[in-house]
Amino acid sequence: MRRDVFQAIADPTRRAIIVLIATQAMTPNALAEQFDTSRQAISKHLRILTECQLVKQEQTGREIYYHFNAKKMKEVADFIEPFRQMWDTRLNQLDKVLSTIKTTKK
Question: Left (φ > 0), alpha (ψ -120 to 50) or beta: where does 40 sit?
């Protein structure tokens, strides 16, 4: 089943996993220790993140390490950027209106 990357990052546990492995590669056991859930549940989250190419696997001996895939996350950020700019513009306009109202009331 091909999953959508936005569906993958919609889950708070998967976002937390991404944050954890953004700074260092981690094994499923090491990740499971960070959450109040089973290793199997973490493995399921990792499988979804791997299917969406947000994380990469690296076999080292008997351990599998999961790495953050910055290139894929940049694609997500690039998609969101125009919307962020639009929100920033609108919020700045709202700030100006509120400042104007605030100064005219004095």
Answer: alpha
Instruction: Please answer whether residues 8 and 47 qualify as being in contact, where contact means their C-beta atoms are separated by less than 8 angstroms.
Output: no
Query: Backbone phi, then psi, for 69, in 5-degree steps?
Result: -100, 90
Rounded average pLDDT per 10-residue block, the chain, 106 residues: 86 96 95 94 96 95 95 93 95 95 85
Q: Which domain holds residue 89?
A: 5-105
Counting the structural domains of the chain, the total is 1
CATH code, domain carrying 46: 1.10.10.10
Entry pTM: 0.79
